[in-house]
Amino acid sequence: MSVHGPDTRSASTRAAGGVRSVLLALGWAWLATLASSFPAQAAPPPHLHVEVAPNPVGTNERLSVSVVIEGENVSDARVAAFPLIDGLRRLGGASNSESTSIVFGTGGARTTGTRTIGYNFLPERVGDVTIPALEVTVGGKTYRTEPQVVHVVANSANPRRPGARSRTSDPFDSIFQDPFGNGRARTGAVDVPDMTIRRTLSRGDVYLGEPVRLTVELWVGPGDGHIEQAGPVSGTDRTGFWVENLKVDSRATGRTQEQGGQVYTVFTVSQQLLYATEPGTMALPIETWRVVYRPSVLSLLSPAQEIFAKSAETQIQVEPLPAVGRPAGFSGLVGRFQVRSELDRRESKVGDAVTWKVTLEGQGNLRTAGELSLPEPDGFEVFSSKANDDVHATDRGLAGRRVSEQVLIPGSAGKLTVPPLAIAFFDPDARAYRFAEAAGHEVEVSGGVDGAATAVVTPLPATGAARPVQQATDIRYIRPAPQRLTPEKPWTSSPVFWAVAVGAPLGNGIAWARRRRRLAQGRDPVAARRRLALTRFEKSLRAIEGEGPDALARLAAALIAFLGDRYGIPSVELTAARIRERADEWRLPSASIEELVQVLAEIDAARFGGARGGVAEARERMLALARALAEGGR
User: Fold this and answer.
1) Are 128 and 150 contacting, i.e. CB atoms less than 8 angstroms apart?
2) pLDDT, tens digit, for every residue of 540-585?
3) How far apart are CA 197 and CA 286, in angstroms?
4) At what angle do helices 549-567 and 614-632 cross, to 10 degrees?
5) Which residue from 215, 185, 192, 217 is spatially nearest to 203, judged by alpha carbons?
């Protein structure tokens, strides 16, 4: 913020400034007159070219393709349609940028521009990939670019050993050198460990309807950093399979695994149950995950790395179910099951309902199999009532039960039989068909009239409870009607209605009034958090004890939290360049900017050689800096 006082310059100085202003204005006017006197010429055709970077590119790197159009009036330039390219998977949509400039020449003044249309791709195979000629429309005319050949190599085009570091242009590279004598810059160094996606199958050869457990793991080689984010970008299409997702603990730490003389940290990122829907060789495409990796929690001034970890193609051989010995009416059940048959009662009357409940339970493809085929009992009219599944996924496959209930109406008196059950399923362990069996039931039916009776009209009694009367063979009363009906009360008479109708506006009014009062008293939550930021920071510093990198890490975390509370600065923005660029936007006091950058850089450097003066001095410097920021901030 600047303060303007009275103008104390001398009269001669002010006069000289006025003369310069007049001369500058006359110069611009002369240039404009000169430009308008040049004869107009026809605009030359635009110049088009395609930029590919990097080239060569690795299969775990992002490929950028930019179509650059240079010329006059290129604002309407469009790429007709980017074709599908074998070996490249497109990531997201197109980006656009444009710049303009005025050029003076013997032919006059003209405005030229440069429009860049960018695309991002993920390489999917090793070898040469050709980007064909692209059609670009500019000013209603169509132009074509030259084809480009991209060389794709395995993993990375610039491979580095695990733990190797890459330099950046950070200004601190020339200040903080590696104390161990390697001459590497600490703030620009980023560990890039080896990362791959590995998929394992519980079985590679299964029967149709038999589950396969697919486990997806992220293998990370040696490195001193941490993973900030990971997510799939391609290869998760499971066409040809019924998929059941298994729960994976996202907070679980990785396990250590040694392979090929190298120690990896392995994270389980996904687990699924796959049920093939057709026989044959089923292929799971290459799966790619985007991983955001940062070298260390203390490396506040180093950029994060974007890595694309890939898996190999995975194949599953699915065998059809044997035709030999397949029972009639087989519904496709695969697994191991038991069945129960139950009646709600064993004695009934003609026309009275009997509920038949069949429960099939066990481990297998209950969700993918067809409907159960149940026999029809003789002497009963059958009405389907309801059917439901209670199925859940386990590590070994789907498990649970399927319940089917049917209403049976006896049509005649006597002893009627509900038949036994024999539900066929295929046992993949025994490689044979089996039956889940349940015994039948007998129902003693008495009274009533024959089911073939004609319609009878019987008058209702004048008083007393109404009795079920058979009006026709297709109408049967299950339960007598009540003697008298009580009208329902209008919903506006309910106390709940008036409580909601009155309470909701009243509550909103109270909340609004309290909010206005809090704002009037300066108790805005954001402002309160900013006021309390220094107090929280001081409390956090007092709780940090001991020496060494762990204590320094906790100090750094406390400072990051203070900057987030006081200024709303996210941790990913804490780089030397971003602090200087956005200091005014973040309302940082100018007198403390360089001190903040220096403190962050020294904490980052301390993970190799320790802090200057130890943790105690680092704590005091950070506390003094935080107080200066709190007092000088706006």
Assistant:
1) yes
2) 888 887 777 777 778 888 888 888 777 777 766 677 777 777 777 7
3) 9
4) 0
5) 215
